[in-house]
Amino acid sequence: MRLFHFSEEPGIEEFVPRAVEAVRPPGREWLNEPLVWAIDEWHQPMYLFPRDCPRILMWPLPTTLAAERKQWFGASGARMIAHVEAGWLDRIGSTRLYRYEFPVESFVDLSDVGMWVSRSAVRPWMVDVVNDLPGSLRDAEVELRVMPSLVRLRDAWATSLHVSGIRLRNARGWTT
């Protein structure tokens, strides 16, 4: 297994645990403690975007209904669909990311879309430069769909697909 952290910052020698304030379900409040966050290899396309870019990614599950797969994926053979707003397309095309790879020993699996956390500082053992985000998404079998606003995708969470929204507070017209 491989674990990664994506950043627009080059040269990070050590990732130190830091607190992230978020509303957590009962029993998961500990996730607001200082932690180092990582993503597994299969789910890494969720982070092939500029940090603040709002995006919605979806993929079929074993329980996904055929009609919903057809509705949302159409004839696409992609394993994931990533939706972004048109206003972010230039930044997606010009952003350089650094993909830091971590040793896995100190990480705990959250059993939540490939997320892992460590309570201790972690030194990456490798870093790759990702210069072509759209190309990297294509290579990962992720179809990038560009739209004026992500708001029309609000109903996606009511489907049998897996749907993840990241940085939606930055999306045009999105309210919680």
Element pattern in H and E: EEEHEHEEEEHEE
Please give the number of β-strands: 10
Counted by DSSP, the helix tally is 3
Radius of gyration: 17 Å
Please describe the biggest sheet, giving its number of strands, its sense, and whether it closes into a barrel.
Answer: 6 strands, antiparallel
Q: Main traits of this protein?
A:
single chain, 176 residues, alpha+beta, four-stranded mixed sheet, 3 helices, 10 strands, 28% strand
Secondary structure elements and pairings:
Blueprint: E1 3-7, E2 36-40, E3 55-59, H1 66-73, E4 80-85, H2 89-94, E5 97-102, E6 108-109, E7 115-118, E8 126-130, H3 133-139, E9 142-147, E10 162-166
Parallel strand pairs: 4-9
Antiparallel strand pairs: 1-2, 1-5, 2-7, 3-4, 3-10, 5-8, 6-7
Describe the fold and architecture.
The protein contains three helices and ten strands. The chain has 176 residues and is an alpha+beta fold. It has one domain. The longest helix is centred in the middle third of the chain and has 8 residues, at 66-73. Helix content is 12%, strand content 28%. The protein has a six-stranded antiparallel β-sheet with strand order 6-7-2-1-5-8, with no helix packed on it.
